[in-house]
Write a structure and sequence with these properties.
The longest helix has 39 residues, at 454-492. With 648 residues, the chain is of the alpha/beta class. Helix content is 45%, strand content 17%. The chain is built from 20 helices and 20 strands. 41% of the residues are buried. Helix 1 packs across helix 14, helix 5 (126-140) runs parallel beside helix 6 and helix 8 (189-199) packs across helix 9 (214-226). The protein has three domains: 3-107 and 348-462, no CATH class; 126-261 and 287-302, Response regulator (Rossmann fold, 3-Layer(aba) Sandwich); 502-647, Reverse transcriptase/Diguanylate cyclase domain (Alpha-Beta Plaits, 2-Layer Sandwich).
Length: 648
């Protein structure tokens, strides 16, 4: 695309409104259908950005779930409306924070499944929907001894359904007896199972178990069946919510569908109205009643075959997708460079994907995932992969932009904005997941899926997990490698001079001996001994003696080729082993010149000088380093002795 055409596309797309949808598990069938329908309503006028977590964060809980960082990436100063699927996120803490940030930027909010002040609320009329179920069980099936499995005590949803239950009983001239007609399953399978264990001990069971949601209804049905009771012949069971699994149980569960798909149209209406007039617009939707086998009605089969086909396909794909992405994650972790790591991101499972990470995590000098600085400092996002522009992120062409102090910590950070706006112009929603590792967020994945196939949505969870593990592991391994290199350097190098110590020298010498490239060539040993070390130590102190040793070591190291092995064996015993052709006299003269230059400007009250001896030999199986050092040392001693004689 030429720059002029790109600019026109960008201008056109900027005329569209930007909608941020906050949800979880975008790949679940109902959520996927909601997104698809909402986007269909909005795509001509809006760009839909989906900020999704892939796990559950329950109600008041504020546990360490770093993928919730994705909600911090919302560019509040750029979006035109924020939509929160409250019952999907399941955290009032998070919802309150999103609402607060939206209001701080004068952004209208549409909330599904919640009652909030100053926001447009789209709700199911749960009371009316639940009443349909209760009336069907009691009135149509003539039940006289019903029992309600409520949610948790003092929960608003649970209390509302209890009141509906009491109302229907009263309308049918049935007395409510709390001891025999009400128990609590806390909306979840395990606590419901414990409650049912006690009910199964009763001498006479109720005629019907009316459950406040489908999860408890499925649990109750399973336990009754295991205990030898027939459903619905011996006891009727009903649920509520329209949970997908009710179509696969035996028998299938009577319920009422609070399908979020029904909310899509109402949500779209509220969005468009709120952006138009700045007012809140709330809507109530009555759930669809679903009679089914568990109450004795005929099988309800409108949806379950489609769902079964989807689940079967998903299971088959899941194993293969996991295998491929696990291999990608492993290859990324084991990469030895950023360029190699990026090359492994290119895979058919990462099509239609843009990855951005905090540039600081690519600095292997810091322990990114444990450092307090990296936790508190703003993230500076850089793109490391964009499947539409793979040519920009190959090992040969990868160039990361320099961090910008003015970048915002959101999905529109730096140059990301223009790219994301361009992707949004295509008319498909963009899905954002946070990348996190060791409970630290470090970037995000943007999936720009070119069609709304649910299997592609399901791939987002697997891909995000694999990429988080892979890139996070790569960052840790690179830091550990750096630490190991530093430890190895400390282990193999002399702390005072930086030259190799005995251990380091012996290991490297063995490598040279085993390398055919060096066998048969010349090898020269150059011994350098500091003159007057005892005098410097006794007169000026050992610190100055150490300084003099370090100066001679530096002179020796600079004078010899880079491939040479320069060593401090101990004390002032310094030598260098040079492989290949060299001119020993030039090396020793270079050492002397460096020391003369040092003495000229050091300001020290003593002169640093060194005596040198050299021995050249053939590097083969007969080469003896000990003998070569002795001969070089003998020559050095003669030079030192002659130097002393000249000074006497």
């Amino acid at each position: 695309m030429t720059s002029s055409k790109y600019f026109k596309v960008l201008v056109m797309s900027m005329q569209k409104k930007i909608i941020a949808l906050c949800t979880s598990r975008a790949y679940e069938p109902k959520n996927h259908s909601f997104i698809e329908k909402l986007n269909m309503r909005l795509k001509d006028e809006c760009i839909l950005l989906i900020f999704a977590i892939n796990s559950d964060i329950y109600w008041e809980e504020d546990r360490q779930a770093t993928e919730k960082y994705v909600y911090d990436l919302i560019p509040y100063d750029q979006v035109d409306c924020v939509v929160i699927m409250n019952e999907k996120i399941k955290s009032k803490i998070i919802a309150d924070k999103i609402v607060m940030n939206s209001h701080a930027h004068n952004v209208p909010v549409v909330m599904t499944d919640a009652h909030y002040d100053n926001v447009s609320c789209i709700n199911f009329d749960y009371a009316s929907g639940f009443e349909k179920v209760v009336r069907h069980i009691i009135e149509d099936h003539n039940i006289q001894r019903p029992h309600m499995m409520a949610g948790q005590p003092n929960n608003a949803f649970s209390n509302q359904r209890i009141e509906v239950f009491k109302k229907v009983l009263e309308d049918n001239n049935l007395s409510f007896d709390e001891e025999t007609m009400l128990s609590y399953g806390y909306f979840w399978a395990d606590p419901c199972r414990e409650t049912m264990k006690e009910i199964l001990k009763w001498d006479t069971l109720p005629e019907a178990m009316i459950c406040a949601n489908d999860i408890m209804a499925i649990t109750v049905s399973e336990m009754l069946t295991d205990a030898g009771y027939r459903i619905p012949e011996d006891i009727i069971v009903s649920g509520f919510d329209g949970y997908d699994e009710i179509y696969f149980t035996t028998p299938k569960i009577t319920s009422a569908s609070c399908d979020v798909v029904f909310m899509a149209d109402a949500t779209a209406d509220a969005i468009l109205q709120a952006m138009s007039d700045g007012q809140t617009h709330s809507h109530n939707i009555i759930p669809e009643f679903i009679p089914n086998e568990s109450c004795g009605c005929p099988e309800y089969s409108e949806q379950h075959q489609v769902l079964r086909d989807l689940f079967n396909e998903s299971f088959a794909r899941h194993n293969d997708d996991n295998r491929v992405l696990q291999q990608v994650a492993f290859s990324i972790q084991m990469s030895e460079s950023l360029e190699e790591m990026v090359s492994y991101l290119d895979c058919y499972k990462t099509d239609n994907l843009l990855l951005a990470v905090d540039s600081h995590c690519l600095n292997s000098d810091i322990n990114y995932f444990t450092s307090e600085d990296t936790y508190n400092d703003p993230k500076d996002f850089v793109t490391i992969y964009d499947s539409d522009n793979k040519h920009m992120y190959t090992p040969d062409t990868l160039v990361l932009p320099k961090p910008s102090p003015n970048s915002s910590e959101d999905i529109f950070s730096g140059s990301l904005k223009s790219r994301i706006i361009e992707l949004g112009q295509r008319g498909y929603p963009l899905i954002f997941n946070a990348l996190d590792y060791m409970n630290r967020p470090f970037g995000f994945a943007c999936y720009y899926l070119k069609n709304n196939d649910i299997s592609n949505y399901m791939n987002t969870m697997l891909a995000t997990n694999a990429l988080s593990m892979g890139i996070g592991g790569y960052v840790i391994v690179r830091y550990q490698t750096l630490l190991l290199d530093k430890m190895d350097k400390m282990y193999r190098h002399d702390a005072l001079t930086g030259l190799y110590n005995r251990v380091g020298f012996q290991k490297l010498l063995q490598k040279k001996i085993s390398n055919p490239e060096y066998i048969g060539g010349k090898v020269t040993v150059i011994m350098a001994d500091l003159d007057g070390l005892k005098y410097i130590n006794d007169t000026f102190g050992h610190a100055e003696g150490d300084n003099a040793i370090a100066v001679v070591a530096k002179a020796l190291n600079l004078a010899t080729p880079e491939s040479a092995l320069s060593v401090r064996f101990g004390g002032d015993e310094l030598f260098s082993v040079v492989f290949g052709e060299c001119k020993p006299d030039e090396i020793t003269n270079s050492i002397a010149d460096y020391l003369d230059e040092y003495n000229r400007y050091s300001g020290k009250p003593y002169t640093v000088s060194a005596s040198c001896g050299c021995k050249t030999d053939i590097f083969d199986a007969d080469f003896n380093i000990t003998q070569a050092l002795k001969e070089a040392d003998d020559k050095m001693y003669i030079i030192k002795k002659n130097r002393r004689g000249r000074h006497n």
